[in-house]
Amino acid sequence: MEKIIDIEEQIIELTNFYKKLKYKKIQRAIYIIYGELEFKTVSPEVVRGKYNVEIQVTKRFPSEVPSVKEVGGIIPEDFHKNDSETLCLGVETEIKLFLRNTPNLLKFVNSFVVPYFYSFKIWQKTGNFPFGERPHFVNGIIEFYKEFLLLNNLSSIINILKYIYNKGDLNGYCRCPCGSGKNINECFHQEKLKELSKINIKDDLYYIYWYYNKINGKRKKPIIFPLTLENFEKLYGNKNK
Amino acid sequence: MKAIDFFKREIDKLDISPTNYKLAVDRYKAVGSCIEDYLKKEFGLDVHIYPQGSFKIGTVTYPADRDDGYDIDLVCEVQEAKCKIIPRKLKELVGQALKSDSVYANMIDKEGRRCWTIIYKEQNGIKFHIDILPSVPENIEIVEDTSIATTTRIKENNMIKDYVWDSTDPIAFAQWFDNINKKSYDSIQLNYRTFLYESNKNIYDSVDDVPKELIKTKLQKIIQILKRHRDIRFINSNNKDAKPMSMIITTLVATIYERVNIEHEDIMVTIKKIVEELAKYKILIEHEEFVSNGLIQKVNGKWKIRNPVADENLADRWHEDNNKKAKAFFQWITWLEKDVVNIDERQLNENMDLMDYFLREEALDEKIPTIEIDRETKPWRKL
Known about the structure:
A: 241 residues, Ubiquitin Conjugating Enzyme, 2 domains, 8 helices, B: 383 residues, alpha+beta, 6-stranded mixed β-sheet, two-stranded antiparallel sheet
């Protein structure tokens, strides 16, 4: 049974912590948190930051990741940003997994938004990212899966994602899709599969598969962005089959 | 901007201006003659009035708390044998003299622990108050002995319980300080004096009219910087009441200045060395240990900083409230290490003043949420 999240309660917790943030309800299910996000980090290094932000949260939080904009014009275009000024805080799946385990808005801000600004400050000062940065686009997603699943092989990652997408059995005596030859309940990946099965990995599978085909020269770029279910099913088959 | 230039510029701003100095002198002389006249007329007593403390030794700084204004300490030494008067009577006599005057009666603050305070209305944006310390000579028959007995009010359950004598010697202290200060004073005084005369011809008739209290040696400037730093750092602190006394700062700094050969160093280097010396005593908070040159001592849980010229322990209240004052003192030393010794020169800019500089982090710290980053999130980019 999923715990029901009172989003307003979470927003109040956030604005109590960051006193210069305010919030308003712009539609029935959409909130905007805006104002100055002012913080001081004490570790790893002491950094002070003050950023004008706009955080959009919907009632579908935590399934839907809040979008964060920096509106003070401090973060340059070519830093980790999407076209619409939204900050690329990290690989989406990584954030979704985090929110799945920690469905808390304040913790989300402290674990993704503040470290993002922290990284920016250190990068500005030294030219280095204190925690590293993900490669852009699909390579970043792949890097995340490599770290998360401890797999170096692209086709194993695709197999795992396909398995989850097709709602493969996670408890039985099937072989683990990682290719280790072990049964799932004996494989290191069982827990990872369970975690991934709770979120939507369809986009990741699509992007990685597209990339895999591209580098192996098997097919041309198969489907036009954005992904449509119809096109997707042509490629990977109907998940209900 | 280099730290040294920054501090040099700032310290000139902190100093009392010749105009305000003259105003202060006029005022304390007026108060003094009011008391003198009254006690002579009514009781046939002779009174000596003279300045003491920072006003006397030339280390006055404009307080960080702008409501306070300049603080001038005056000794009101009633020429009466100590055995012929009780402390309560002495305090009352001086209070009575002030209250008898129609002007001062309205300016007098409620009775202090040791002093009477006259508060002046703000004039040209400058505030003043004068602390008048009633006292009698410790040994009236020995002319060379300048030590005095002062009165201290003791309260119990918020009721006045008693008045007791305390001993101190402001004149000898000023002489002790002047002695340490003398060499540098002699070397700079002529140029300094001429400079002040040239720029304040409306106040002074001749170069000799410039009071020596306005001529600032390196030692005096250092004490001013340190006092200013203390005032600013403690202004928002919850330990405000425990901030180190000026007398303690002056004593320790002048002693170190004399002992360690730092006379010819640059002012910032000198401050660093002094703070380093003082930081050596931090160990006393946790342990009672022998520290060489024991300027600050701790024996059986009681602290001791000797007045260099009198039988007086300046740290006699440091152990109270679980060493509250001692802790505040070493907290201040830690702040000094951070603010002045380990100064990050890049952070100084032209438009900053000392107040901003010292408060820079402190003021921010109070409101800003503090985060320990425990998740090493890597930024990514979709397209």
